[in-house]
UniProtKB/TrEMBL annotation:
UniProt xrefs under CDD domains: HTH_LacI
Keywords for this protein: DNA-binding, Transcription, Transcription regulation
Pfam families associated with the record: LacI, Peripla_BP_1
Keyword DNA-binding applies: yes
Segment forming the signal sequence: none
Keyword DNA-binding: yes
Listed name of the protein: Transcriptional regulator
Top-level taxonomy: Bacteria, Thermotogati, Thermotogota, Thermotogae, Petrotogales
Species the sequence originates in: Tepiditoga spiralis
PANTHER family given in the database record: LACI-RELATED TRANSCRIPTIONAL REPRESSOR, XYLOSE OPERON REGULATORY PROTEIN
One Gene Ontology term of the molecular function aspect: transcription cis-regulatory region binding
Domain HTH lacI-type: residue ranges: 6-60
Classification via InterPro entries: HTH_LacI, Lambda_DNA-bd_dom_sf, Peripla_BP/Lac1_sug-bd_dom, Peripla_BP_I
Length: 328
């Protein structure tokens, strides 16, 4: 005897409802009583029914899948962003598929309008400079930008130049006339991947402090990158107070560990500020500028749903960053 795959008719029969009601539950559309919804979902789970995605697409013109493209799958920043989006989108039966843009091959692929990322209902692009990548060859699929801005597409972003200014003002407020200022940054590669985020933060910092007063040092964008940078910069304890802006919490984490290990006293020997407010920053007492990652994810999802509801005009939403004062 051949075991047949369960169908939507089987679900409807076992739940004692019509096929239309099952379809409404699957598509999260239309009014269905909560007890009926729970019963249908329980039966789907029990019999192992898997919706036919091709049929679903033909009936609704949607795949109920979305693409999320980001430069680095291993960065905590994008991990938080993805998790927040997945939570929100799943409430509407959407799956978010992560496509890490990690090499030139993947970059060249997304330039093609036939690439797999465009087989979903929309594409979210995080920290990716679309002006460099697409230029005049704009994909027909709905694009939503996160942590970057382009007037042609919906976007949610922060002003990274302002972040640099905010860091500078904090350190200036806590400095004296003999304080030495340092910028520990990461040298972004000059290619189509380069979003210029770190460069903008650094420029805002330098312009506010004064170019002649800031010593710039390049470190690795790793958890120990700031530690190694500080080992080279501060081989011996300085008599003057030092004020340090690290371009990212990933670098700032190592810098804070260095100062703690070498018994630098916050506000007396040094002040340190970073950017992002990743979870590790709170643990070690790192003063930082909070990026509104969760709000960025929320706004991007809302842009997608308003697009589904018929919005035609492009929206560019600038979010504000926030200074989070801690021990450093």
């Amino acid at each position: 005897m051949i075991n047949k795959e369960p169908t939507i008719k089987d679900v409807a029969r076992l739940a004692n409802v019509g096929i239309t009601t099952v379809s409404r539950v699957l598509n999260n559309s239309g009014k269905v009583h909560e007890k009926t919804r729970e019963k249908i979902l329980r039966i789907i789970e029990e019999i192992g029914y898997v919706p036919n995605m091709n049929a679903r697409f033909l009936s609704s013109k949607r795949s109920y899948s979305l693409s999320f493209v980001a430069p680095d799958v291993g960065t905590k920043f994008f991990g938080i962003m993805y998790t927040e989006m997945e939570k929100r989108l799943s409430l509407n039966n959407y799956r978010l598929i992560y496509f890490p843009l990690i090499d030139d091959f993947s970059l060249q692929m997304i330039k093609r309008k036939t690439d797999i990322i465009y087989h979903t209902d929309a594409v979210f692009l995080a920290s990716i400079p679309v002006k460099n990548i697409f230029k005049d060859k704009i994909p027909t699929k709905k694009l939503i930008l996160m942590d970057s801005k382009d007037e042609r597409f919906d976007s949610v972003y922060v002003d990274n130049y302002k972040i640099g200014q905010m860091a500078a003002k904090y350190l200036l407020k806590n400095s004296d006339k003999n304080t030495e200022f340092y910028l520990i940054t990461f040298k972004e590669f000059k290619n189509e991947f380069n979003s210029g985020v770190f460069e903008k933060r650094g420029q805002g910092f330098i312009d506010t402090i004064g170019k002649e007063k800031v010593k710039v040092f390049y470190g690795d964008l790793r958890w120990n990158g700031g530690y190694k940078a500080c080992e080279k910069l501060f081989k011996t304890k300085k008599e003057k107070k030092i004020a340090v802006f690290t371009i990212s919490d990933i670098i700032g984490y190592g810098a804070k560990i260095f100062f703690d290990k070498n018994e630098y006293i916050p506000n007396k020997d040094y002040n340190l500020i970073s950017t992002d407010d990743l979870p590790q920053s709170k643990i070690i007492g790192l003063t930082t500028i909070r990026q509104p990652i969760a709000m960025m994810a929320k706004q991007a999802c809302e842009l997608f749903f308003s697009h589904l509801n018929g919005r035609k005009e492009v929206e560019n939403i600038e979010l504000e960053s926030k200074l989070i004062k801690r021990e450093s």
